[in-house]
Amino acid sequence: MDMFVNLATPAGMSLAMLPEIVLTIAALALMLLAAWRHGGEEDQRLAGQVALFGLGLTMFVMWWLWLKGARPDGIAHMVTLDGFRYASSTILLLGAMLSVMLSLGYVGRERILTPEYYVLLLIATIGMLVMAAASDLIVVFMGLEIMSVCVYVLTGINRRSVFGAEAALKYFLLGAFASGFVIYGIALIYGATGSTNLTVIDLRTSNLELESHGMLLVGIGLLLIGFAFKVAAVPFHMWAPDVYDGAPTPITAFMAAGVKVAAFAALMRITVHALGGSIDAWQNAVWGLAVVTMLGGNLMALAQRHVKRMLAYSSIGHAGYLLTAVVSGTETGAAAFLFYAFAYTLVTLGAFGVLAAVGRNGERTVRIDDFAGLASKRPWTAFAMAVFMLSLLGFPGTAGFIGKWYVLSAAVESNQWTLGILLVVASVISAGYYLPVVMQMYMRPATTAEAHSDSAVLGAARWVVGGATTLLLLIGLLPSGLMNLARASTEDLKPGVQFTQQPAPSDQPMLSDED
Q: Does 20 have pLDDT greater than 70?
C-alpha cells in the first residue's frame, strides 16, 4: 500500500528529503574527519571509505522510500515523491559510488592528497539529488548551483596541474554565465504563469492558454540554453573537451555521467511535467539541439587521437541521444532516458577506470595507439574496454544497443522519424573512433616488451570495471526487467497523477478557480 506524505508540513518535508538529509550528515561528518585526519594517503583512503558508506546509506534510505511507495498527498510543492525521482536518484548515487571507488587508489597514485576531495564529491551529489527531486524551478536552480560550485573546485583539485587550473577557470566562468540564463528563464516563466511550481505552471499554461505567450516562450528558450550548457549540447559544448581533459580522471567520469544525468533528469521532468501542454513551444528547438549535438559530437570525436578527449567528444554525442528522448515529451521518452542513463553511467565509469589504469599524470597524453597489444598483456582489461567501446557504439548484445533502441522507439512513437534516422547515422559515424580502440588492443602488437606492465586495474577500481562489464552484458542479453522498471518509474511523471484520492490537508494551498 502506498504511503502518502503531506509535503505541506515540516515532518512530511523532512521525510521526503530524508535521503538528502542523510547524505548531508555524512558530508558534515566527513568534513570533521578531514579536518582531524589529513596527513597522508591512508587518511585520504579512510575519507573515501566514509564517503562510500554515506552514499550506500543514502541509497538504502532512497530504496526504503521507493519500496514503501511514498507519494505526495496532493500537489508536490517543492520536492516530489515518485518513481522517476527514485530511479534517477539511484543512478546518480550509483555514479557517485563508482566515482569514489575509482578515486580510492587514483588520488594516492597521483598525489592528490586534498582532504576536501570527498567532501566536495558528496556535496555535489546532494545537489544532483535535489535536482532529481525538485518539483519547483527554484529548487532545480538551488540543486544546480550546489552541484556546479563543487564540480568547479573538483575540476582543479590537483593543484600541481596547470591544465586542471585552466579547466576549472574555464568551467567556472562559462558555468556562471550559463546559470544566468537559467535564473533569467525561471524569472520570465514566473512572470508569465505566476508560479515556479511545475504542476501549477502546467495547469495555468493550459487553463489560461499561455502556450504562445511571448514572455513564456522567451523564458523557455533561456532555460533551454542554460541546460544545453550543463549537458554539453552543441553549440554550447565548447567547455567540455578542455574541462574533461584537464580534470582528474575519476572527476571527469563523475562529470560525464553524474552531472549530465542530473541535468537531464531535471530537464526531463520540466519538459514532460510542466511544459507538456506547451510542447510546440520547445520541441523544435530541442529537436535541432539533438541533431547538431549527435552529428557534431561524433564528427568532432573522429579527429581525436587522445583517448580522454575522444571520450569527451563522445559524451557530447551521447547528450544528443538523450536529447532525442527529451524531444518526445512523453513517458516513453522518460523511460528511455532512465534506461539509457543507467547503461551510460556504467559504461562511462568503466571506460574511464580502464583509462586511469593505462595512463598516468592525468591520462591526458594517452593515445589510441597506446592501447596496442593490451589484449596479449592484460586480456581481461582489454576485454572490459572492448565491451565499453562496443556498448558506447550500440553493438548488439550490450546494454548500449538496447538503450539506443529504446530511445529510437520513443522517437518513432512520437512520429520523429527523421530524428530517429539521424540517430542511426550518428551511431554509424561513432564506429570510426570506437572500433580503432578495439582494433589496437586485439590486432596490433605491443610497441615494446615492457608495454602495459603497469596497466593493471587494481583495488576498488577492479570491482568498478568488472561489475560494469558484467552488468552491461547481462542487461544487453536480458533487458526486460530493467525496461519494465523504467516504464513503471515514469507512470506518474505527468502532473495529473500527482493528485491522489486522499483529502487535501486544510493548510495545503489550493488552486483558485482562475487557475
A: yes
- Tell me how many degrees the CA angle 110-116-117 measures, rounded to the nearest 5: 45
Cell 520513443 sits on residue: 410
Q: What does the pLDDT read at residue 3?
A: 84
The pTM assigned to this predicted structure is: 0.91
Q: Tell me the C-alpha distance between 464 and 253, whole Å.
A: 12
Q: How far apart are CA 138 and CA 161, in angstroms?
A: 36
* 209: phi then psi, degrees, rounded to nearest 5: 55, 55
> Length of the chain, please?
515
Measured between alpha carbons, how far is 262 from 154 in angstroms, rounded to an integer?
17
Query: Which residues, listed in sequence order, are joined to residue 71 by a DSSP beta bridge?
Result: 4
Give CA separation, 276 vs 12, 65, 269, 306, in Å: 28, 27, 10, 41
Q: Can you tell me whether residue 136 is helix, strand or coil? A: strand
pLDDT at 376: 85
Weakest-pLDDT range from 37-46, 128-137, 257-266, 316-325:
37-46
- Residue corresponding to grid cell 586542471: 164
Could you tell me the three cell numbers for 271?
Answer: 519538459
Place of cell 577557470: 169
pLDDT > 90? residue 261: yes
